[in-house]
Amino acid sequence: GESVGLHLPTLSVQEGDNSIINCAYSNSASDYFIWYKQESGKGPQFIIDIRSNMDKRQGQRVTVLLNKTVKHLSLQIAATQPGDSAVYFCAENLQAGTALIFGKGTTLSVSS
Amino acid sequence: GAVVSQHPSRVICKSGTSVKIECRSLDFQATTMFWYRQFPKQSLMLMATSNEGSKATYEQGVEKDKFLINHASLTLSTLTVTSAHPEDSSFYICSAYRQGGMNTEAFFGQGTRLTVV
Asked: In chain A, whose CA is at the least distance from the CA of B50?
């Protein structure tokens, strides 16, 4: 079946660098995409979202890019901090109000 | 503060016993809640959709008689793992959508770590 996946399982960066986490999705009918951060032993924490009618959305230090042509989603974190170390998941929603489908996750490690 | 609360956060039980996990929406009503399971170093996998006042909808491969879901009120869904076995040890997470103006946002509970010994 179709699913959301991630290109890389781990990403290591230095503090202050910019981080880019990628996600490939396969369902062209997906309408809504979200990035979550999950720290060890905790539930997912919302970072930023984007709808299929947009290609870019910016938040505080984070930017999500959506390329529908190649079905690609990315999360950019500016000036990465040690506190950003966590597992990042992209998730897609096929229809409003239905369950989110999660990708495999990328572990981001930030060293000082 | 949290808008979706799970209880307990951790539970250890013996094989063969049952464990109930509660998921509450704290400041909004949720006619639908979702239950996920997450094994170590893996992603969240949807188990079932909990519907207030009606039967839950289970994903393929999830045994409905083993994972009992009850959504008796608009703010509470429970997941009962019956006759638990060590392979049921996992991190269980619930979520619910909260509608606010033009936006609908999914909120997640803090998760329940189940260990079956």
From this structure: A99
